[in-house]
Amino acid sequence: MQTYHDCPQVLREFLSYHETIKGQSQKTISEYYLDIRMFLRFVKLMEDNMPYDTPLEEIDIRRVDLKFIERITITEIFDFLSYLANDRADGIGAAARARKLSAIKSFYKYLTVRTKQLVENPVKDVEFPKIRKSLPKYLTLEESKRLLSAVRGKNEKRDYAILMLFLSCGIRRSELVGLNISDVYEDRIRVSGKGNKERIVYFGTACKTAIDEYMAIRRNMTLVDNKALFVSQKRNRISVTAVHRLVEKHMLAAGLDASQYSAHKLRHTAATLMVGNGVDIKTVQEVLGHEHLNTTEIYTHIENTELKIAAQANPISRIIKEDEE
Questions:
Q1: Are 112 and 118 in contact (CB under 8 A)?
Q2: Distance (Å, whole) CA 301 – CA 135
Q3: Is the alpha carbon torsion for 274, 208, 265, 147 positive or negative?
Q4: pLDDT tens digit string along 188-231?
């Protein structure tokens, strides 16, 4: 674990707890570190009556202790959220503010419930910012076929297998990059998702064929990383950036707007195709690795047969405009 020298001891202990006891990923730990560090810097800015435009990165919080944290009130927490929304030049959006608030809530829960270093939790009843939910962009079945048909070039077999995994299994880009040879079985893959949670995702015949054809080529390569399933031109594990670029390349070749569709949109596509073809939402949740069902339920609003039937049942839909004489 990093030492986080610019943080107080109480924050370092919190980060260590989440890494060693809770077993959370380094990415999650880093997000906690950045979010809570920003919060403590802001509170110190206010408490020490510094000029309001003082850059937060210039504020030293290494001496912040439990007494300092105990003095923090709900008013200061609201001030911090207001600062994020209105006073920062970059105008942090509702989703980012919600993430920072979640980190602060976890910090106080650790101090009050887990370690009982504090009695009062001022952030316990603070509501999360309302986030406007928009329907995810996705490819239709015909567009998906066009994308697959457009794959050409030196890495054709590799790229085709990657796109098939995205469209068949709905895995995340980071999950695909992390796949090892040992994670591939006859008809399924073992995926390490968010928070290092593992799940098994099955794939169909076409996807298996694509993987088998790529593997036939991979076996004849001299590799730097022998464990990685997908490798780059330099024979190392393929990077997240390289996956983004290959998706963009084949999108353009298929005549699709690469600015609108990314690797993550292929995940949305897989989910939408599953829901639209009768897979129940609970199963889709397991396939995607969503912790909460309501995250998955957004796909029911995209391909909802009942809503289509309701529209046709409305007698207005049967009105035919007569031609004027």
A1: yes
A2: 8
A3: negative
A4: 999 988 777 889 999 999 999 999 999 999 998 988 888 999 99
Q: Are 132 and 120 in contact (CB under 8 A)?
A: no
Catalytic one of 157, 172, 173, 265: 172
172 is catalytic: yes
Return the ∠ at Cα 36 (arms to 32 and 41), rounded to 5°: 150
Name the strand (E) or helix (H) holding 87: none
Give me the residues paired with residue 241 across strands.
Answer: none
Residue that has been written with the tokens 């049967």 in this structure = 318
Cα dihedral: 161, 166, 172, 177 (round 10): 10
Sign of CA dihedral 213, 217, 220, 222: negative
| 290 catalytically annotated | yes
Q: Look up 292 and say whether it is catalytic.
A: no
Instruction: Indicate which residue of 37, 158, 208, 267 is catalytic.
Output: 267
318 noted as active-site residue: no
Catalytic choice (12, 137, 190, 290): 290
Instruction: Give yes or no: 267 in active site.
Output: yes
Give yes or no: 137 in active site.
no
Q: Determine which one of 105, 194, 235, 244 is catalytic.
A: 194
Q: Residue 123: CA atoms inside 13 Å, Cβ hemisphere, count?
A: 27
Residue indicated by tokens 């593997």: 215
Of 267, 263, 270, the C-alpha closest to 242 is: 263
User: What are the tens digits of pLDDT across the range 116-159?
Assistant: 999 999 999 888 877 666 667 889 899 999 999 999 988 999 99
